[in-house]
Amino acid sequence: MFQSLFGFYRVLSLAIRSLLLHKLRSLLTVMGLVFGVSSVIIMLAVGEGASEKAQRQIQALGANNIIVRSKKPVQQSTKASSQDDQEGVLIYGLTYDDLERIDETIPTVKMTTPLREFKKKIRYLDREIEGRIVGVTPDYLEMNRLVESEGRFIDDIDLDLRKNICVVGYDAATRLFPYESPVGKSVRVGNKDYYRIVGTTAFRAPSAGTGSSLSAQDFNLDVYIPLTTDRVRFGHLLINDTKGSTTLEQLELSQITVAVNSINAVKATARVLESLLGKYHPESDYSITVPLELLEQARETKRIFNLVLGSTAAISLLVGGIGIMNIMLATVTERTREIGIRRALGARKRDIVWQFLVETGVLSVTGSLIGAIIGLLAPQLVSQFSGMETIITPWSMFAAIGVSLLTGVIFGVYPAIRAAALDPIEALRAE
Questions:
Q1: Residue 205 near residue 387 (C-beta atoms within 8 A)
Q2: What is the largest CA-CA distance in the chain?
Q3: Domains of the chain by residue range
Q4: CB 329 within 8 A of CB 67
Q5: What is the secondary structure of 67-123 as a DSSP string?
Q6: What are the pLDDT digits (tens) for 294-318?
């Protein structure tokens, strides 16, 4: 065994010395594998990060939940206002009757959480922001995975007594109260109503648009009030002033989140929900989003994305392997006389094959290790300078290195066999 190790050491030393005789050529050969390995790791890290972020946003909606949103119908039917026959009121969206029907007729529904939202100016002293007023129930906090930062959230007694209290989001609290605690202070919502702050929520990263019906949301500028208070103080009529024109909309509920008692019943419940609401909303003024289906689609997209990225980056490894074969073939031509001398002194064909394979292995290992180091460092730089999330998975690194080594060896076999097949007498005659 010692003799075998010593023999391998001699062959390895000879291979390294041979490669160092042509430093630039060896370096250029190695660079193909360096770029191949690093590009595989970097591209898969970027793809994994983007996919993981999308899946987290979908999971935040709850795999057991079904989200029903009000939306303006394509054919906007209007009804004359009781105050002014010349001005129409757009009536659309979910109603409290819909909420009651869902609770009473679908047995797989564990809980429903309604809300209504609209934009309003929020003021404290001389500070003002435009936030989203959200009328909610106490279980909204858990359903949307919000975290209390200070004080408390809305509870059942607030709903029963229709209290003028509110809970403000992180950014709203920071901008309205930069130097003091907001809890116990009162803010003015709109032009006349004042609400006492009883708590704040912790910062939550804004969500991107999810699905066809859920738009991007920034929870940090939200102001939460009891849903019953919203119903009493603001009613169902929303007045929107945009670009000098005023529109009136009658909207009872903006969203109903339906929690299903089993994840296996989510898709069936969504079909029943679609059928139920369709009977009372002929104009399709609502949309249903099933986060579970979106999550499954995101995971499938991730697999396809990784396959495409991995295949694209693997082309660099193929090019690197071809480069190794090209250089080794040139080396065989240059060292024909050396091969002839070794054969004349008693070297066997397998010794010649082994010598060239070791040289190929040195190039492959060197390129793979350098590529792996770059592949580990580069994603961190991408995250730091672009803000994109990157995730390096162990399998991507091992796969890139393994394929790189395999490619190098495979493309080095032919030059090695060709070198061993040279006739010793002809090789000695070579100039």
A1: no
A2: 111
A3: 2-56+297-429, 72-284
A4: no
A5: EEEE---SS--EEE-SS-TTSEEEE-SB-HHHHHHHHHH-TTEEEEEEEEEEEEEEE
A6: 777 777 777 787 777 667 766 777 7
289 close to 214: Cβ distance less than 8 angstroms: yes
What one-character-per-residue DSSP string does 20-40 give? HTTHHHHHHHHHHHHHHHHHH
The SS3 of residue 193 is strand
Rg (CA), the chain: 34
Amino acid in the structure at residue 21: L
Residue entry with tokens 């190794």: 324
The two beta strands, 165-168 and 193-201, are parallel
The answer to whether 290 and 270 are in contact (CB under 8 A) is yes
Instruction: Give the tokens for residue 277.
Output: 């609401």
The partner residues of 111 in beta bridges, in order of sequence, read 259
As a whole number, mean pLDDT of residues 326-342 equals 73
Phi-psi region of 390 (alpha: psi -120 to 50; beta: other; left: phi over 0): beta
Q: How many CA atoms lie within 13 A of 19 on its CB side?
A: 25
Write the CB contacts of 23 (distance below 8 Å, at least 6 apart in sequence).
none
Please name the residue that has the structure tokens 């082994």.
354
What does pTM read for this prediction? Answer: 0.65
For 198-255, write each residue's pLDDT tens digit.
999 999 876 655 554 555 677 899 999 999 999 998 888 877 666 666 778 889 999 9
Question: How far is it, in rounded angstroms, from Cα 67 to Cα 254?
Answer: 11
Rounded to whole angstroms, the Cα distance separating 33 from 328 reads 15
Classify strands 186-189 and 193-201 as parallel, antiparallel or unpaired.
antiparallel
Higher pLDDT, 78 or 285: 285
The SS3 of residue 286 is: strand
How many residues are recorded in the chain?
Answer: 431
Q: With the C-alpha atoms ordered 265, 266, 270, 276, is the resulting torsion angle positive or negative?
A: positive
CA gap 200, 183 in Å, rounded: 8
CA 414, CA 328: separation in Å to the nearest integer?
9
Residue type, 147: V
Give residue 22's region: left, alpha or beta (phi > 0; psi -120 to 50): beta
103: left (phi over 0), alpha (psi -120 to 50) or beta: alpha
CA angle 222, 227, 232 (to 5 degrees): 115
Other CB atoms within 10 Å distance of the CB of residue 19 = 20
- Cβ atoms of 231 and 245 within 8 Å: the answer is no
